[in-house]
Target: Gamma-butyrobetaine dioxygenase
Amino acid sequence: MLRHATHDPAVVSVEFEDGTRARFHAIWLRDNALDPQTRDPGNGQRLITIGDIPAEIAIQAAEVAGGDLQVTFAPEDKTVTFPAIWLAAHVYDRDQNRPMGWLSPGITTWDGGFAAPAGDWTQVHESPAAKRDWLAAVAEYGFAKLTDGPTAPGSLLKVADLFGYVRETNYGPYFEVRTEVNPTNLAYTGLGLQAHTDNPYRDPVPTLQILYCLENSAEGGESIVVDGFRAAQSLRNENPEGFALLAGYPARFEYRGSEGVCLRARRPMIELSPDGELIGIRFNNRSSAPFVDVPFDRMEAYYTAYRRLGEIIDDPAMGVAFKLEPGESFIVDNTRVLHARLGYSGAGSRWLQGCYADKDGLLSTLAAMRVAQPEAAE
Model:
């Protein structure tokens, strides 16, 4: 609810029931008007362009009506109502000076003491509440497990079906993770793998990865996940200059493991949005190409920061370890959570299948479920 509103031709000032105040520009309000001539009432898409709004747009009148804001715009003589709850959710008149590497409010970082979130295969597929909770865990923590699933090849595709679509790559709709002779990728050997994000040589990178266990009787081969956002923040806290170097200059990544494929990308190891939000990690020693975009006089400092980030990631206290059993799987946000594998012996068998998907589908499904069941999302 709003208490009152004042205005001049360029700005409306409001006071909410809790005493907080906010200002909104005339052009912003007109561009975001909620009337059916401005936005389609069915899908919410805007029906006008910025050029359709008069350059001389101004506030002709503004008042509180029934607790909401009612604005009349000149020269259109158009009156639009803005619900107080909508205005409160879209306030931009606030201190927006945040530290470099700040995180979205919906993200919680973790280290090795964290208990891996998990959902039950049957419940997640049959119960909307269980599915929503599992998707929410992936969104908040960057990974989650699924247990007690089938062991039929291709079952991982049913995991992707929970929220979206498989992103097919040169590896196909999905790929096999087991020992091969003359492998095209070190993932297909029994060697241990340092914690890494997958496919940093793609642009855009696949934003989700699913790994599904079909057989696992080999000694070793435990999976480890590391929160790359926690690692990056640790680096920032102890070496702000090094953090800025890894965020400020692009690294290079390349993959040429099979005939007809030469993938290259030029992106920073630590990716920030223009306002400093931490939005991505690309870290993969196997796929790093020579760094040639860092100035000569900063290269040694860049490598010092790179080494330290690797040390933080490799710290056992950072990783959550688990051994997948047949029918178990886990999903990681490939822009945030690194995954590793301990080496395993030739005795027994270890067969996983993996695929990629995209986070926008998962976040869309989760948001739609929360809208449909708002009481359950609280």
Observations:
- The chain has two domains: 2-89, 118-377.
- Residues 299-314 form the longest helix (16 residues).
- The radius of gyration is 25 Å.
- The chain has a mean pLDDT of 94.
